[in-house]
Amino acid sequence: MVLAAMVALNGVKYVHRQAPYALLPFIQKDMALTDFQSGMLASAFMLAYIAAALPFGWLASLGARQGWIAWPSAIWSLAVTGTGLCPGLGSLLAARAATGAAQAGFGSAAPSFVAEHHPGERKALALALYSAAVPLGSALGYVLSGRLGALWGWRAALVVIGLPGLLFAAAARFLPDSPPGCSPRDGKRDAGLRPWAAYWALSRIRSFTACTFAMALTTFALGGFAVWMPTFFVRYRGFEVAKAGYLFGGVTAAAGLLGIVLGGVLSERLAKRSGKPLFLLSGWGMLAALPLGMGALAAPDLRAATALLFAAQMLVFLYMGPLNAVVASVVGPEARPLAFAANVFVLHSFGDAVSPSLIGAASDAWGLRCALGLALLLLAPAAGLCFWGAKHYDQDTQAA
Fold it and tell me: Residue 211 above 80 pLDDT?
């Protein structure tokens, strides 16, 4: 019941995150926004998300998780609904910032809650299924908002999409508490420890640091591809904008879902005696994806390029369940929200918050194909961090 509820809420989270972006052409026309002003909506969301992650992670570590799952869900649902009622750019930016901050609060507590209800080797599969809502919710957000926007306009679309989230938020209040031994009240952390000292203590856990920065490098590449790959199809394949979006969105949703679930299933089977396969499976997936991704950029035939892109993304997405399980395993229950908050802060700050603009700058200098290829090269050091982290995993879990 807990897993089903959390998968549903995570899916709603990504529907609400992506819905306004599919409606941007309608919003731009209605409010006469420039491309820069429209891009500020994504920046407002991400900056608020990053800024709120660490303080909300600290607060979520001090008590029961249900409240930190329910009330952020209600706030971001209201913020999405309110986005459809905004009269101008300032209020739009405020609504997107509120959505981002609330989703950061949820993201600090929810993976911890899933992990606490699925101990041992079940943790990786449970977190993989939780993460599978990311591509599905994102795809649904684009499709649903685009369809409703075409029928009723962008304002009505956001109101209709936002309001049902309040029902999910209310249901979250009735989720069962964490099992004995997994509650934050059962932890060993010194209550007088300052927040920054608690976060600094996480940096000394070598497998956590390796895992977090491996995810950041991977997110840099994935986030850059999410923004620029449709444009790549337009420039290098002669696609129309709509066709490019449908192709890349469909490939990403299918490959992401398959890779995430496969990574969770394999992790559950391989990690019965040691958690090292959580790192090794992720690292080998990243390393194998690198040449396939390069092939997708260079292949002259569209079918071959699409197949290579699908395979590369599937292999990259293997990491989501295993590395989230690492985060949950190398710290005690009292520190898990801190660990997931720090993980979110690092992977977005050094990942998809900066990669679109840096890839754009590299594209201006050397062309988009070269720029995307350079981003893919970061999968190699990400894999290296996974292999290094595997050496310290068992020691770190024993100390947790």
Answer: yes
d(CA 20, CA 15): 9
pLDDT 10s digits, 145-173: 878 888 898 899 999 999 999 998 888 88
Indicate if the pLDDT at residue 187 is higher than 70: no
Provide mean pLDDT across the span 49-54.
Answer: 87
Q: Which two tokens stand for residue 34?
A: 């420039």
What domains can you pick out in the chain, each with its CATH number? Answer: 1-186 (1.20.1250.20), 192-400 (1.20.1250.20)
Per residue in 107-142, pLDDT tens? 878 888 887 887 766 777 888 888 888 888 887 887
Four-residue CA torsion sign, 47, 379, 222, 132: negative
